[in-house]
């Protein structure tokens, strides 16, 4: 069973046991908790920490500002979103606000997707390809990756709701 399947099974079991009166509200809480944790734990690039910059101190990308991966977390009901959003959101406020608007629009229970379509998000989550079973951490800011800590955080939040 994959970690996502395990997560879905745990949420369903918790939901079946604990949620009776306000299931739509719990769905919103879970979606916003996942989004908030994803945004807050996604590293914001800092060229000073990059391996190439450590080897070449004069290395600089013209006009580089980190925060693009953080900007690209998106919530959607029913189908995953496939586009990459241009721009940055260094502190995450814009992305979380957009997610809150989306969650307020949930009118029925169903599958809520949290996606990030930047091409390097998998590397941030899993690390550098080539080592198994888990890749070598790629980001010093997220050494455990992104998805596993997010799943644990959402489950903790759901367990706290009574």
Distance between the termini: 28 Å
Order of helices and strands: HHHHEHEHH
Q: What spatial order of strands do you see in the largest sheet?
A: 1-2
| Percentage of residues in strands | 5-15%
Number of strands: 2
Summarize the main sheet.
Answer: 2 strands, antiparallel
Low-confidence stretches: none
Structural class: mainly alpha
Mean pLDDT, to the nearest integer, reads 81
Helix coverage percent of residues?
40-55%
Count of alpha and pi helical runs: 7
Specify the overall morphology.
elongated
Provide a descriptive summary of the structure in words.
- The structure is a single chain.
- This protein is mainly alpha-helical and 162 residues long.
- It has seven helices and two strands; from the N terminus they run ααααβαβαα.
- Strands 1-2 form a two-stranded antiparallel ribbon.
- Helix 1 (3-18) packs parallel to helix 7, helix 2 runs antiparallel to helix 5 (93-104) and helix 2 packs antiparallel against helix 7 (147-160).
- The longest helix is centred in the first third of the chain and has 19 residues, at 23-41.
- The mean pLDDT is 81.
Summarize the structure.
This protein is mainly α and 162 residues long. The chain contains seven helices and two strands. It has helices spanning 3-18, 23-41, 51-55, 68-71, 93-104, 121-126, 147-160; strands at residues 73-77, 112-116.
